[in-house]
Amino acid sequence: MHCGVAPPREVTGDLHLAGLAEQSFARRGDYPSLWFEGEWHTSGRLFERSTRIAAGLAELGVEPGDRVVVTMANCPDVGVIYNALWRAGAVVTPATFLLPVEDLRHVIADSGARAVLSTPEFLAKVTEAAAGLEHVRWLICTGDPAPDVVALATLEAAAPGRVAARADDDLAALLYTGGTTGRAKGVMLSHRNLHFSGHAAYAAGHLEGVNRALTTLPLSHSYGLLVTLAAMHSPERPVSVLLRWFDPAMFLALVEEHRLQLSAVVPSMLQLLLAQPLEQHDLSSLRYLTSGGAPLAPEVEHEFCRRVPSASIRQGYGLTETAALISTNPPGGVKAGSVGLPVPGTEIRILDDRGRAVAPGEPGEICCRSPGVMAGYWRAPESTAEALSDGWLRTGDVGYVDEDGYLFVVDRKKDLIIRGGFNVYPRDVEDALVEHPAVQMAAVVGEPDAIHGEEVVAFVALRPGAAATARELIDWSRARIGGYRYPRRVHILDSIPVTPVGKIDRKALRPRAVR
Q1: Which of 116, 342, 392, 452 could make an SS bond with 346 (beta carbons 3.0 to 4.6 A apart)?
Q2: How confident is the model at residue 464 (pLDDT cuts 50, 70, 90)?
Q3: Could you tell me the pLDDT band of residue 213, with boundaries at 50, 70 and 90?
């Protein structure tokens, strides 16, 4: 894979994502496919817009292989722009709108982006982040024209053109990791990677007639991108109701109003939904939720399914480095606590610290190989060499496989706490704390300790109207997990910090754990 600007190819690969969009539209035709903030958008209109914007980008000077940063909140324009960039042969480089200026500048600078595309409310931040970067040729913005900024409407006025030729292994997306353990790295995903994961997600989870979805994940994240690509493989006419960002009350109202059947979530969303009056809404249309992005506490899963009996929760597992997918629980074959079976085409190994395979049921580092595994990290050969070997990816996650082949994720290796020589996995402590009736969310980190090496420190957020003391929660944990694992200190917060995709932000909590 080329890291620089690649010339147009004479042959377009069979797995070209713009070709997938064309095939999807040809198969389904024109119909109301997307609802957003009170308005329906038809598949024909969305597809036509992408063809025109692609031609406008090419006329502007965007060439195949160019990286284009897209920083926008969820809206119909995001999907249109992604398809337009793929059609023009460019590389989609998403950046969440929540990034501070310095982190956005890192994405723009590190990617060598030639253009940045945004919306008016983020234009000032984008302008500041791109200032002085000579490789940035254009700032493009939706809405009314601004000085020295290209209006998206101007690009959309172009006549539709052909798909720019790209090979299957050419770069399609450059997604920057969250950077919770250091500076964010660009993950290189090809058309092949993303096409494989989208099809595998569809094949492993599709149920005929279950095609009315609520989309609330950020489309700037690999998980949200996976959900979008999976829908493009469906032979039916999927309908999506799109939220600008997650709002638990709006989530429930839209499920009820539009009789929605499925949604992809992360565990923190489920915990926030449990704080809502679920019983006051007709959620009987809801068939299943797919949960990923972080481990799901058994108590949260059990409580949600108890209160919404029509729905089941299917956990899955993946990383940005695997185009967001490694395994999932198949419909009708859900195993509680597991992140499911490897999707077809994916191999999993569980290895010890010496690189040896362990027996079923024994924990070790999860390693995987599949057509979805990244080509490497952008301009970071040393990091790539550490993560990849003979096509196998070291995920940095600890897990095990049971006798039936189901995968269970224990925790991140880097989050492991070693207290007095014993391993403490934060998830075990968090799950115990969440079982307390007053606790809504919990996060656990290690604090340097002169006697034990590290000490276990917990942060909790209580349910609305609930009360509990730190001493009570320490005793509760000790009674359940005992010995060396229970937290010696508990901090009660108004809320637990999370990353833009809803994972616990332990990086933000660690400084607060130090006395």
Answers
A1: 342
A2: very high
A3: very high
C-alpha 230/C-alpha 92 separation (Å) is 17
What CA–CA distance (Å, rounded) separates 303 from 166?
47
DSSP string across 155-192: HHTSPP-PPPP--TTSEEEEEE---TTSS--EEEEEHH
The whole-angstrom distance between residue 174's C-alpha and the CA centroid of its chain comes to 14
**β strands within 8-103, DSSP E:** 32-36, 39-42, 67-71, 91-94
Q: Where are the beta strands (DSSP E) in 360-479?
A: 364-369, 376-377, 388-389, 392-401, 407-412, 417-419, 422-424, 439-449, 453-462
- Please report where in the chains the tokens 């915990």 appear, as a residue: 271
d(CA 496, CA 507): 12
CA dihedral for 383, 385, 391, 394, sign (positive or negative): negative
Assigned superfamily of 193-413: ANL, N-terminal domain (3.40.50.12780)
Query: Is the distance from CB of 258 to CB of 35 less than 8 angstroms?
Result: yes
**Percent over 90 (pLDDT), the chain:** 80
> Any idea which architecture 17-32+41-176 has in CATH?
3-Layer(aba) Sandwich (3.40)
Task: Read off the tokens for 287.
Answer: 């068939």
427 SS3 class: helix
pLDDT digits (tens, 9 = 90+) for 417-454: 989 878 888 988 999 999 999 999 999 999 988 888 88
Q: Which of 105, 67, 127 is nearest to 184 (CA)?
A: 105
Q: Could you report the per-residue pLDDT of 257-309, keeping only the tens digit for each?
A: 999 999 999 988 998 999 999 999 999 999 999 999 888 888 899 999 999 99
Mean pLDDT of 94-122: 95
C-alpha 280/C-alpha 44 separation (Å) is: 37
The per-residue pLDDT for 178 is 63
CA distance 228 to 451: 50
Least confident of 36-45, 46-55, 173-182, 395-404: 173-182
The Cα 496–Cα 506 span in angstroms is 9
CATH fold match for the domains 193-413 and 416-513: no
Full-model pTM: 0.88
pLDDT, residue 3, reads 39
CATH number of 416-513: 3.30.300.30
Assign 196 to helix, strand or coil: helix
Whole-angstrom Cα Rg for the chain: 23
